[in-house]
Amino acid sequence: MRQDDGAYRSCRRFVQQNIHACVAHLIIVTALVLISACSGFTSRGTPPVPQIHVGTQGIVANFVGNTPPAQVLEEGKFDMLLELHNQGATDVDDALLSISTNPEYLDISIPQGQSQLRLAGKSLNNPRGDKTLLSLKGFAGRVSQKTPVSVPITTSICYPYATEAAPVVCIDTDPEGLKQQRKACTAQAVSLGGSQGAPVAVTRIEVSSLPHDDPERVIPNFKIFIGNVGNGEVIDAQQVDSYCQGRPDKDAFNIVSLKARLQESFLLCDKQILKLKSQDAEENYVQCELPQGIERRIAAFSAPITIILDYGYAFSVTRQINVVPRERS
Amino acid sequence: MPADVVPPWASPYGGGSEKSSWKWILVLAALLLIGVGVYYGFPLEWIMVSGGVLVGVLFFVDASYGFLAVAIYAHTFDALTLFDRSRGGGTAIILYTMVAAAALIVYGWGNRGRNAGLFATLSVVSFLLPAIKGVLSRILPLTLSVYVDGVIVFAPIWVIFILMTDQRLRQAASLYFTFWLVIFSINFTYVSQTQGIGDIARLGLTAELIDVYQPIREVYQRTITAIKLLWTRMMTSFKGIEETIGTGFETQIQEAIHGEQEKPKAFVGLDIIGITTLEGERILAGEPLTLSADVKAGVLDQEIAANFACNAKPDGQDKTPIKADQITPQESLTVYSEWLEPVDCLFENLPAGDYEIGLAAEYGFTTKGEFSSYAVGINLWNALIVRARKEGGNAKDLFLKTQGLSPLGPSISTAGPVLVALDTGRDLLTIDPNNPADIILKVTVRNLWAGMISDLQFLTIIVPKGFDVKDVAGKDPKEPVQQTRCGDLTQQRQVLGACDDEKHNVFIAQLRKEAVGSIRNVRVYLSPTNPDDILRAGLYSIQTFKVIADYTYKVERATHVSVREQ
Amino acid sequence: MRLRVICISLALLILASCAGQRTSEDRGFENFRTGSQGLVFQFMPNLPPARLYDDQDFNVQLRVTNAGAANAGSASDRMYLSGFDPSILTGISSFGEQVPPLEGKTQFNIQGTYGFVNFKGIPRALSVKKIDKYPFTLVATGCYNYQTIAQGNVCIDPDPFSTTAKQKACIPQTTSMGGSQGGPIGVSSVLVEATPGRTRFRIDVSNAGGGIVYRFGPEFSQKCSPYDQRGLQFNEIDMVRLDRVEVAGTNILPSCKPLDQGHVRLINGRGSLVCEYTAPRSQAAFVTPLLVEMSYGYQQILQQQVEIVSSR
Questions:
Q1: Are residues C80 and C159 in the same domain?
Q2: CA distance, residue B399 to nearest chain A CA (Å)
Q3: Which of residues 245-304 of A touch C (CB under 8 A)?
Q4: pLDDT per residue as tens, chain B (566 positions)
């Protein structure tokens, strides 16, 4: 084909010139279909499994549609539709909702019984998690200026939450390689990608095997890295209520408690409560080990390590609304 | 077949099919090896490696044949193992890579080497494509995975078609395309029925490739998160631009329909312009002297009661000014918005001497200053400080960022000859419910005009419920600060202050009488008497403070005149 | 021509794909000591399935085919399953299951025999451990004792440098012994070096089965288990026991070296030993059978990806 031909004309000309080759291809395609018939495929009919422990958010709040409106006349009323969606995998029984704004210009109240909410997380029966729509009423006050006043409305949702991660790690009972045996898996760092159906996630686990006092056993050792992967703030689970009301303790932020389990036993960790140091997960880690160890006699195997993180979380969303003065004669 | 089409089996060295038939024999031999080996139960890896060696040799002889043979052998392998590339996948990758490198070494970066290397290199990439596709197909909806397959899986073919320079290579590539199409169809049909589209990735993975796959997946997910964040920020910015453009556009439309709106005047209040003496700058003693000027009013919200005074001040500081004998139209006038009125002053008999002769207009005015500040509980503030210390940055920025807020602007003042500026001197108000500390509201009254504030009379201080005014530094010591109600304010001040007894506490402070030069500072001491009302039930609140300054403003203009003895 | 080529290609493709579904035919007497496999293990289709729920039984069935020429299936020949967390998948014994007695190939049974090994495991509920799914690599380890008997004809020339004009019956040269002899360990070639009065045989032994060879014996078969405390050590693998080396009816094993307690050591799957046969110089060159008999333990590993999914 000449290189200056248009692509379409080139392709068409190519097909026309190579019609016999195309026929040959057709025959080969048919043959391969026969091959597939010969190979005796069997159908297993397994449907895909819904992904529950996936995602980086907990409860997310969003203003729906054009609410609140971008502009409201002074001394006028307006509606706000707030959608709360539990996008994570943990049920929440007592999420607290609070609204912050400038009471000089806006008055927004949360209807009775709607400041404390219950939202179930994702599950096999509820793969998307609970959603609820709150309807809030607002009133705009008087504006003494001649120009519109921009007022923020911040909706905060505070809730206790948990992350359950169960990555599969390789337990190598022969780290020295004394046994001349091909291992079922290789003990190495496992990157989890930080998506476990919660805003605080285990991002990585480094695995190693340490010698036990008993030479017939090894101690699996894990360095578990944790990070805030959501869009909100990590707070102490005990201070969810006080935080949402603007009255937390000094050390309210970034408190996560951790429990880890391998097989039937809880791991011994160097700290039960982790204070996240920064947004960078590399700085936030806990060292855990299985003190009783695992028998060397068992060949290397893959096992899930269950990690449960407990914490509180706060997510705020802000909209600006212009309160427009009426024309005065 | 058209004459210019070279069949795939034709030798590149010219001649008929006889000379190129041995290459086909090699291809068939590779296939035979596969069949025999499978039949006799040789390990599959052995079969594929030995077949691969044969086709590798062919590759060097003629890249198109080699490529075709590689494609046939590789995909037969796939069909036999149902895409279980854990068996020999690593071997195949190594083989392809070696062939690619060797082709480049042997042929150099000419056409042949380029094509050979390209095909083999892309074949290496092809082995990783199912894994990439598996990742993508977990993300994308099921229906889209078909299109993803079409693009991703056939990507090497598209590249080949674009970059190829030899017609026979194109034919070989089109055959390769056909193989891929069928293999993919088998794969899709079988696997989608058995394991779901999302599990296709597992078929492309070996234990070794998992090491590659995990970081790829992690990088992919971080990239998606970053793209989402970038998209959100872009959309937010775009929305801001949209509003600005929309607003401006709307204004232009309105102006086109209704005519250009008159812009507000540059000043508010009164000014005296065009002052002059009608008899000139020199007169004789005993002659009358008329001082003439225009009094101009700016855009006013309300009428002003202005008092006029004309004085002739003899040169020398200790001389008593001489009042005018008559002021026309009168000494006190009600001035309306954008009013222009001539005012004359008559001096009937000025003694000889040099005078500075002037007209002064004095009027009462009110200017309001308004200031808003975020208010948070002291505990939350301390928690933010602790966190900011650890993460770097300052607590205020952290607060704004976590709540999605922007800084509130400085105080605003209504138009007038005087500016009333308010400030608390803090980033935001921190309220300790258990031990609320006083807050100082600094009120600055600044003269903006050429005139002067002859008397700053009192301040009306409107604060949110929850605050009380404890004291005002600069007030008249004989007059305590008085609390009043919105309803007791004048209508004008109620409107100006947007005062509501349910929302505000109102105080009036009479100020100490002193001349105000260009600026006067007053400090209002606020006491948070009801922290719950201030903080409310949220993470923060915004508290708005208003101060209305009542003052008398004097504008004076003068000119010189000389009175001589007759 | 074109169509012919295409049709031949198609025929071969179909042949290659459908291979394994042919029925065996009676081909009459054949040399049954061929092939480089001993026991061949295969997971039966869907046993285990690639994915199952935690409320289902975990059934594994392996088809064991004796594709070699020796009998197998003694008490120490066992299959083991490993690679999983025993606290999640229970019921699978760490002692493994015995490989059923399987006769090797004979002249009357060229296909060999096959049997099945079954395992049954019971997954624990994953939801209790807050696990959605548990993927792992199931490893099936087969450990068995095997023998290889390699037979081939070699030429003995006691007087290789004689100057007589007599025509010799044969000339000593390398013999391939058929390449493989019905077992994963085989004699790949025998190099004959004739010197006056003495003939040396360099016997090359190779591991062509794709698995790990280890010392023969039940105690080593025990160590082959993935659950053995110590497992096979470096001086226990890649060792093949020479039981017999006979030429012209004479046992020449004592002359063979280097042997480590009667074992030849393989390095990178290959090893060799040199044996000597002494024949009187007066004897003319003759062809005679060479017999090499070896015993060894063999470990074969099969892997399959399995995923157990929480049913709640």
A1: no
A2: 11
A3: 261, 263-264, 296-304
A4: 444 444 443 434 333 334 456 666 766 676 676 666 666 656 655 666 666 666 666 656 666 666 666 666 666 666 555 555 544 555 556 666 666 666 666 666 666 566 666 666 666 666 566 555 555 544 444 444 455 555 555 566 656 555 666 666 666 666 666 666 655 555 544 444 333 333 333 333 333 444 454 555 555 556 655 555 555 554 444 444 444 444 444 444 444 444 444 444 346 778 888 888 888 888 888 888 898 988 888 877 777 888 999 988 888 767 788 888 888 888 888 888 888 888 899 988 888 888 889 899 998 888 899 999 999 998 888 888 888 887 788 889 989 988 989 989 888 888 888 889 999 988 889 998 888 889 999 999 988 887 888 888 889 999 999 999 999 988 888 888 999 998 888 877 777 778 888 889 999 999 888 766 778 889 999 999 998 888 888 889 999 999 999 988 888 888 898 988 87
Say what the alpha-carbon torsion angle B385, B386, B391, B397 is, to the nearest 10 degrees. Answer: -10
SS3 (DSSP) at A15: helix
> What residues of C are in contact with residue A20 (Cβ under 8 Å)?
2
* Nearest CA-CA distance, residue C305 and chain B, Å: 9
Please judge whether B538 and A100 are an interchain contact, meaning their C-beta atoms are less than 8 angstroms apart: yes
**Cross-strand bridge partners of residue C195:** C198
Which of B180, B200, B247, B380 is most worth mutating to test chain A (most A CB atoms within 10 A of its CB)? B380
Please indicate if any CB of chain C lies within 8 Å of the CB of A178: yes
Domain identity same for A211 and A276: yes
One-character DSSP codes across C261-272 = TTEEEPBTTEEE
> Do C88 and C158 lie in a common domain?
no
Question: Is residue C152, in this structure, part of any structural domain at all?
Answer: yes
CA distance, residue B439 to nearest chain C CA (Å): 53
Assess whether the previous peptide bond of A103 is cis (omega < 30° from 0). Answer: no
Segments forming the whole domain that contains residue C50: 32-146+299-309
Task: Report yes or no on C26 lying in a domain.
Answer: no
The per-residue b/e assignment along B510-538, b for 16 or more CB within 10 angstroms, e otherwise, is: bbbeeebeeebebebebbbebbeebbbbb
Q: Is residue A38 part of a domain?
A: no
Residue-number span of the structural domain to which A64 is assigned: 59-158+315-324
What number is the ipTM of this complex?
Answer: 0.76
The reply to whether A185 and A122 lie within a common domain is no
| Nearest chain A CA: its distance from C106 CA (Å) | 30
How is domain B366-381+409-551 classified at the CATH fold level?
A: Immunoglobulin-like (2.60.40)
Say if B446 is an interface residue toward chain A (CB within 8 Å). no
DSSP state of C72: B
What phi, psi does A5 have (nearest 5°)? -70, 150
Domain tally for chain A? 2
Please report which helix (H) or strand (E) contains residue C240, including its range.
strand C239-247
Q: Residues A183, A300: one domain?
A: yes
On whether both A112 and A185 belong to a single domain, the answer is no
CATH number belonging to the domain at B270-364+556-564, selected among 2.60.40.3880, 1.10.150.120, 3.40.50.300, 2.60.40.10: 2.60.40.3880
Contact B38 C19 (CB under 8 A): yes
Task: Say whether both A138 and A120 belong to one domain.
Answer: yes
Which residues in chain C have Cβ-Cβ distances shorter than 8 Å to A163?
none
The CATH number of the domain where C141 resides is what? 2.60.40.10
Structure tokens at A52: 């529950």
Q: Which of C245, C236, C299, C251 is nearest to C272 (CA)?
A: C245
